[in-house]
Structure formats: C-alpha cells, structure tokens
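Hi U.,

Before I forget, here's the chain from the pilot set. I'm dumping it here mostly so it's searchable later in email.
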Amino acid sequence: MEIVQNEAKIEAFRERAKALVAQMTLEEKVSQTLHGAPAIERLGIKAYNWWNEGLHGVARAGIATIFPQSIGLAATFDEDFIEEIADAISTEGRAKFNMQQAKDDTDIYKGLTFWSPNVNIFRDPRWGRGHETFGEDPYLTSRLGVRFVEGLQGHDENYLKAAACAKHFAVHSGPEDIRHSFDAIASKQDMAETYLPAFKACVQEAHVEAVMGAYNRTNGEPCCGHKTLLKDTLRDEWGFKGHVVSDCWAIKDFHEGHHVTDTPVESVAMAMNNGCDLNCGNLFVYLKQAVEEGRVPESRLDEALVNLFTTRMKLGVFDELEANPFNNIPYTVVDSKEMKELNQKAAEKCIVLLKNEDDLLPLDKTKLKTVGVIGPNANNRRALVGNYEGTASRYVTVLEGIQDYLGEDVRVMTSEGCHLYHMKTQIHAVENDRISEVKGVCDASDVIIAVMGLDSGLEGEEGDTGNEFASGDKPTLNLPGLQEEVLKAIYASGKPVVLVLLSGSALAVDWADENVPAIIQGWYPGAQGGKALANIIFGEKNPEGKLPVTFYRSTDELPAFTDYSMKGRTYRYMENEALYPFGYGLSYTSFEYSDVAVDTTCVGEDGVEITATVTNTGDLAGGETVQVYVKVCEEGTPNAQLKGIRKLYLEAGQSEVVSIQLPREAFGLYDEEGVLRVKEGAVKVYIGGQAPDSRSEKLTGRKATEIVLSV
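Structure:
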C-alpha cells in the first residue's frame, strides 16, 4: 500500500506553522529547537518532548511489546511483515500517547516522534550497534527501511500515525569509543553504492518525516552540520521536506571532539546554517546569541521551526481530537493478546537454522526423558531484548520456553555453565566454577541444548553497555569468557548437542561448526523469544530466517575497523569464504526451483522480469525467501549483489510461480564519482533460496539458477 500524501493538507499545515512561528519572540523560537520543547501557553502550544524510541517496540516508557531486535527482524527478509511490525509499534505508541496526554504527561519518551529506523549499514561485525540495523546489504536495508517507515507513519490521507526518523545520516558504523572525534572517510563510490541508498529510499519512497545526523564526521564535515549531506544531498538533490535532528549532544562534539569550531556559539551556528532543525541536547540555547550576533539569520531559525511545527501538525496534535482517527486507539491495545501473538510469530520467523547434521532437529519430545539446558544465556532476559527496549509484562527465556513446552512430560535440568564473559560466576570461587555441574547435567541428560552468545551488556551503544573491552564494540568475534570451553566439555559428554546462539551480530563459531551437530542463530528474539525457540527446536514451527549479515571465521580477514572503504567487506566485496554466508539459512523442508525464465535476454529501459516455479519438495510446510542477485561480468566489479526478494509460504508438495521485476538500474554500478552507470556487456542473474557463492552451495547442497543476459 502506498502512502497517500495530501499535498494540499501538508501545505496548509506549513502555512499554519508559519503563522504560528511569526508570533513568537526570539527566546520562544530558540526554546522550540530543543528536544524538550517547553509550552508557550499564550500561543496554545503544549510542551512536547521530541525524543522517543521505537526501534523494535515502544521503548523506555513502561509496558510495551518488545519485538525481536532489528537485526532479527531483518532475518525474516519479509517486507510485508516488517511493515506489520512497525504498524503494531505505532499502534502501541499512539495508544500510550493518547493515555499520557489525557493524564498531562509530556515527559521524555512519550511523544509521537520515534527515532527509528536505524538504516546504517552493518559493514563490520565488531560494531556494537550493528544489531540496531537491518544488516550489511544496502538493498535489503532499503526495502525493510521503507516498509518500516510506512508502518510507523501509516497510510492516512491527512495525518501521520507517528513520525519515523531515518538515522544516523550518514556513514556511521563504529568504532563507538571514538565516534565523537572520528572522521569516517568514504569514497563517492562507496557513499552512493553502500552508505546512502537506504536513506535515499526512506526519503523519496517512504517520505520519512525526520532524518537524524551522526556523531562522527564524514569526509571532514561533522554530520550534524554537514553542508554536503544535509543541504546539497538531502534537501536539494533528494527533495526532503521533513526536519533534521541532531544525535544526542552531538553538536558539542563540533568544538570538543572534532575541533572544527572553537565555541558553542560557532557550533550551533554551523549546525543550524547547514540544515539541522532540532537539537537533541541543550546546546541550541546558544542560538539566541548566534542570531543576535548575526551568525544565524533569523529567517533560517524560522525555517527550522516551520519544519518542526509542520511535523507536529501532521501528527494532528493541534487539531480537535475527533478530527484525527488515531486518537481513537485505546490504551488496552498495549500488550494485548494480539500483540503477544504477533511478537511470538516475529520471533519464530527471525530464527536462522545454521546447521542440522543428520537432521538432529527437530527434537522429538516423545523420545526424551531428560533434556539439559546449559549456558549463560539459557535464562538471561537481557539476551532476549537487545537495546532501545521497552518493558515487557512477561519475559520467556530459552530455559523457561523449553520448560513450558515440555511440561511434566520431560525432565529439564539446567546449569548456567559459566558467566557470560567473566571467568567465574561467584566472586570467591575458582575459575570455571560451574564445570562440574555442567558435566553432571550432561551425564543425566539425553540431549543438551547449549545457549551461548552475547547480550546488550556486551554489544551496544557507547555508554549503554557494561562492556569492559571496547565501549560496546566487540574486540573479537569469539564467544567471550569460558563459553567455548564449556561447549567443548558438553560435546565431550558424547550426548547430542544443539547450540543456540543469542547475539545481535556474527560470531566466529568455527569449532562449533566443525563439531556441534545443530546450530541455531536466535538473535535477540524479543520477550517471547524462549517460547519461539522451543517451538523451533521441537518442530512446532519450521525455521525460515536468512542471515542479513556475513558470519566470518575471524577478525584476521577483516580490514581495520576504522577503514570505511568497502573493499574486503560484506558479502559484496569479500574475497574469503564465509563461515556462514549472507542470505543463508536452512529449513526442515526443502525447496526446488524450476521453469526459470526471463522476459528478455537483453536488458532494456524496462529492465527484466524473472519468473520461476518454487516447489516445497519436503514433508513439512515452510517459508522460503526467494533471492535474486545480479553480477556484472567485468573485472573489478562487486560480487553478485542482492536485487530482489520475495517471501513464499508453501505446504508440503505445493508449488507457486513467483515473478520479480528487476529495473534497469539493478544492472548498474556506481563509478568513482558516485554516478550510476549501466554499461554494455554481459551480466548474470541468479535466482534461488541463497546467494550464488561456493560456501552456500557447500552448506545447502544446491545452487542458485544462473541466467546470462546482455545489456
């Protein structure tokens, strides 16, 4: 469904905003550029706090549905479902807002301006905030970002359901500990091909209401005062009509970290003059001085305020209650039965089956007497929720999900196994103080489910994590602490082992891949995550997730973390073979592709339509992600790149014909000046349930179908 934008209505809002701003004093104008905008009672303006979070559920404001973290949602590869999730988030957001407004609660995290989605590219697996994104691929990120924005903002002709914000513009992906002073150097080609497409799609296709700048500099300019990005690209080239917000307290970094200005007044002038309308923080109080000294034209300040008040008017908060249909959403929809069911479905859809030797999974509970559940994430609530999270009314950990599923039929024994990253669980104990318990549980069990990985205390945003290593980033891709040692002890017991990884990023589980028969990537699966994982492990649901990131074997094969060139990064540019490739994920059933055809062998102005019959050749119903990749057959070009996706659900034996249209631009590449060029020559198109790489072929035993076309 396309967003229906009533241009006349929007223009009327802008005119109303201009009239309102014209009545304000300079002090009042300045006050409205801060995220905590105070009331102006004489003009009928209520206090409004712009800062709210809705990355994977309404965050930081009490009870709300905690959906799987964004990286997990990306693993669904399901555009329609992403919009359904975002629509649910904005439904709860509106419901909470309506209740809070009725109680005169205008505190932080209680507005309708949600600072999500995060459409940065997860270019390096060490980046702690990567789990906030939709992965490493600009096409997938663009498609999911657009639909997330549409879900948040809704499809009403006159009003926004909520206002989305594409962040962090641009080229932001670590390291976290130097983000306040770091200059991310990216070529015009990498900017156009990798770092900007998702932002452009959110602006031009989804009409995202807000864009947030990043902390870092990009090519010398601080992102929250970046003329090239905020004026030349966002406003002039892309035609952005919404408002720009700074990242929180980022503007003080101009003089304190980046040293491109000397004083706070110079910093706020740089930000405002280059297109930043709203300050998350308090530095914009210096705008009064900046205007009085002639550093910022008052007309530019007025322009910023018109942008901001137009957003508030589009949200309907200046109109009569009955005029806005979203005011009718009752508080009772929050944490409802329907929301819990959707959340569980989301968790089940995002889970990726990485290995299933000899079909160990799904487990048959009728053949089991005792199941051992071991590991620091087995009963760890924090490993369910990721960051930027709300508060659930109930959390179901993996241990609890298995206990609930098996009930009294099967004994469940458990051990923490080890601390998530420390060398002991008790301060006065010796190292590895749970190893005897691990061995005891193994001895008594028929099968072991090892639950390892990370949580948001280890990977996340600088200042939010308890990470003693790298301010939220990962120093290595290894399982931290004693986890691998404990896993080896479990394996040595001789019992069948299922490894469940809860993490927001790729882990180098090379030893496990060689030795453990079954491996599941569960991400941070949300408050219902334990229930979903139990359903997957015991075959109530069929795994369908695909990896939105590459799993590498080691950091040794990665360029320097601070190197923003895409050379050697992600599936599109990597030269080594992945541990688990982008786009990969197994199922309990099997799918075959036949009758693959294109409507032309020569790519013209209308592009190419590719069709295929997909058949579920297994014994179980399942979901398949149809993936289309394009490879330009010229030396020095990227590996085959994702250019089309379609999600199918097929009963055992069922077939469906799928059709995917590839526009002419899908066969182009950006040159060194960042210009898209579709050159004459041969191109290869691949269609299948995976990427067309050798590692995917080895892991799945099948190949994507290849078609050679000419341009």
